[in-house]
C-alpha cells in the first residue's frame, strides 16, 4: 500500500475535524463512534509508520475537543 505524505494526511484530518459537528448531529449516538472510527481508520491505514503517532494524536484531540472521550482539560491538544 502506498503511504500518504504528512501534508495529505493533515488535509484529510482537517476535513474530518470540519465534518465532525455534522457527523455528531446526523448520526445516531450508538453509531457515532463506529462511524467516526471507520473514517479515522481509513486515514490511519494510509499513514506511514512514522506518521501513525501524529495521526493518532490528531484523532484523539478531535474526539476530546468534541467531548466524545475524556481527557484532561489542561492537556494540550495541539497535535499539529
SSE inventory with pairings:
Layout: H1 6-26, H2 29-45, H3 52-65
Helix pairs in contact: 1-2, 1-3
Descriptive notes:
The structure is a single chain. This protein is mainly α and 80 residues long. The radius of gyration is 13 Å and the shape is globular. It has 3 helices and no strands. It has one domain (6-65). The protein starts with 5 loop residues before the first helix and ends in a 15-residue tail after the last helix. The chain has helices spanning 6-26, 29-45, 52-65.
Give a brief rundown of this model.
Helices cover 65% and strands 0% of the residues. It has 80 residues and is an all-alpha fold.
What descriptors fit this protein?
globular; single chain; 80 residues; mainly alpha
**How large is the share of residues in beta strands?**
under 5%
Q: Structural class from helices and strands?
A: mainly alpha
State Rg: 13 Å
* Measured distance between first and last alpha carbons: 24 Å
Percentage of helical residues?
A: 55-70%
Shape: globular
How many domains? The number is 1
- For the residues shown, what is the average pLDDT? 91
Poorly predicted residue ranges: none
Total beta strand runs: 0
The major sheet is characterized as: none
